[in-house]
Amino acid sequence: MTSILPAPQPVSRHTEIALKPLLAPLSRVQAILFDLDFTICPIGFINDLSVDAAVSALKARNAWPALGTAEVRSIVRDTKVTFGTDFRSVLPKLEAQLGIHDRRVLAEINWRYDKAEADNMQLTPGAFELLVFLARNQRKIGIVTNGDSYRQWQKLFITGIADFFRPVIISEEVRLRKPCPEIYQLALNQLGVEAQNCAFVGDSPSEDIAGANSVGLVSIRIRQGKYCSVEPLNELEEPIYEFNSLFELESALSSAFECPPDMRAQTTPSRKLPKVQNEISFNLRRSNSIPHEVGDED
Asked: Which CATH architecture has domain 13-42+122-284?
C-alpha cells in the first residue's frame, strides 16, 4: 500500500563502516520483536481520518449534540481507542457521553470509524523493506502489541504483512500487557531464543523500551509517532539503540550483520551505553526523516 509519508535517503557506506564496532550487539541478534502501533503502522493520522469519517455521520443526520467539535472528536476517538470493536461497549459509551439516544446514529458513527480505519490502513515507511530484509537474512520476526485482537490482526492482514510474524502476541489474547515482563518472556519462549540474542523495536519508552530492558532484550527505539518527543524518565526506559526511522534501522542492521565473528563478542548489550546510543543516533540521522505522527493509541 502506498504511503503518503516521504522516505529518507540512504545512509552513506562510509557511515555504516565507521559504526560497525558500535553495532556489535546487533550482529548477534537472531530474532527481532516489533511493536505494532506507531512502529509498524502510523496509526496516529489514521485515527484522525477515522474520527473525521465518524463525526461526518452526525452532520449528515443533523444529529450534532450540544457539544463543541473538539469535545465530540475527543469522545469518539477515546471511546474507539479504548473499546475497539467491542460493539456492546462502544455504543453505550457514545450514548452516555454524546447524549444521543438514536441507536441508528450511534451504530453509524461506529461503522464509519471502523471502515475509515480499514480503508486508510498502511505501513510506516521502511517497514515492508525492513521485514523483507530480515526474512532474507533468516532472522525470526515476531509482534508483541497491546490492543484489541480483531483490530490488531486486521492491521496485519490489510497491510499484507501477517505472514512475516511468528509469533503474533496480542495483549487481549494472552491477558498480559506491555511493559509486563511476562509478555516479552512469552514471546522469547515461542521464538526459542535467549533474550540477549533478541531485539525489540518500539516507540514508547515506558511500555516498549522499559519492558524490553526488564528481560534483557536488545532495546531499539524508533523516534516517531505518539511518543517522538517523550524522553526516558529513568534508566530502564533508556534504549540501547535509537533511530529516527525504520530505514535507519535497516541500514544499521545491514552493517551489523556484516560484522566479523570476533567483533560480535566484543560488546555486550547494556543500558549503561548512552554514548554508544547517542553516537549511532547522531551519525545515522537524516535531514529529511519521516514527519512525526501524533495520535492516541499505544
From this structure: 3-Layer(aba) Sandwich (3.40)
